[in-house]
Design goal:
single chain, globular, alpha/beta, 10-stranded mixed beta sheet
Length: 314
């Protein structure tokens, strides 16, 4: 057996909330990634367990509010992806409520853009056979980068073959209804809202989970319900509003979250939410727990600060 891909060099968190593992590559100098073992405070471990994996070595997208884009050193291969899963699974393999959870949400959303990495599809194809007794519900969170149409078509095929009946969740992170603003805060070529809508009509089948359109809204972010109503089908898509997490990137970019962690938000946002609900959309107000924020469970935070320390030492 060859040398393991990763060495655990850090672990931060709290029992019952989340443990963030900081992994250092054994094969490539200076590569740090994160994976996460988390619980949703709304549910018991027996009902829901969350595993979050990185898909790339850093991220090429460079979203202005994210800490995962402090560098980019390429895609993770299938072995590197699966070994992250092994790291998170290892403390639970003797059998516990997590391992026997009714819903194990396997989230490709830590560091990297999963739609830019073909190996993610290979992992999705393999995990039902590697851990056959675990009820994985994979989740892909993507900004819909342009030029990856083949990847997205293969995702439809995999979902239909292995994860039908609502056992797969797809999220598009749009973060604004204004295309120019999206281009500013997520500065890569990506599908427009209309192109995402067209894809959704091909992806969605009866029995599937609705596709999530995620908006992490800052106070200055353009958010117009009318554009969503004109573009998306509420029988295929739902809307999720989230806070802008308190990352270094958000601080540097002066992003002040519209949705506060106490659940409050401006009246102007409330009016847009009402319009969406009146048009038939399901709107989810999704707020992470303050305990999650306290342990620094936002994407890239632990790797970013650790990388900066390494750079200073060198």
């Amino acid at each position: 057996m060859g040398k393991k891909c990763w060495k655990i060099i850090g672990k931060r968190g709290k029992d019952g909330v989340a443990w963030i593992y900081l992994l250092s590559s054994n094969r490539e100098e200076g590569v740090l990634i994160e994976c996460v073992d988390a619980l949703d405070p709304r549910y018991s471990a027996r009902d829901k367990w969350v595993i979050i994996l990185s898909s790339q070595k850093g991220c090429p997208v460079k979203c202005q509010f994210c800490d995962a884009a402090f560098y980019f050193k390429g895609n993770l291969n299938q072995e590197e992806l699966l070994e992250q899963l092994d790291v998170v699974m290892a403390p639970h393999l003797k059998g516990d409520d997590c391992l026997n959870s009714k819903k194990v949400k396997l989230h490709f959303a830590r560091m990297g853009e999963p739609a830019m990495n073909p190996a993610v599809l290979g992992v999705l194809a393999d995990i039902p056979f590697i851990y056959p007794g675990v009820n994985f519900i994979p989740t892909i969170a993507t900004i819909a980068p342009a030029g990856n149409e083949k990847w997205f078509q293969e995702l439809i095929d995999l979902k239909n073959q292995l994860y039908s009946g609502g056992r797969f969740q797809l999220q598009f992170s749009l973060n604004s209804t204004d295309e120019n603003y999206r281009d500013r805060i997520m500065p890569v070529r990506k599908w427009t809202a209309r192109e995402i809508s067209n894809y959704g009509s091909k992806y969605y089948m009866d029995g599937d989970r609705k596709i999530t359109l995620n908006y992490a809204l800052a106070l200055e972010t353009p958010f117009d319900a009318r554009r969503l109503i004109e573009t998306f089908d509420p029988s295929v898509f739902l809307i999720k509003i989230t806070p802008v997490n308190p990352t270094e990137g958000a601080t540097r970019g002066n992003f002040t979250t519209a949705l506060k962690f106490d659940g409050s938000y401006p009246e102007s946002l409330g009016r847009e939410i009402n319009k969406l609900e009146e048009a038939g959309f399901e709107v989810i107000i999704s707020i992470g727990s303050l305990e999650e924020v306290a342990v620094g469970s936002n994407c890239g935070q632990l790797a970013f600060t650790s990388y900066l320390r390494m750079e200073k030492i060198s």
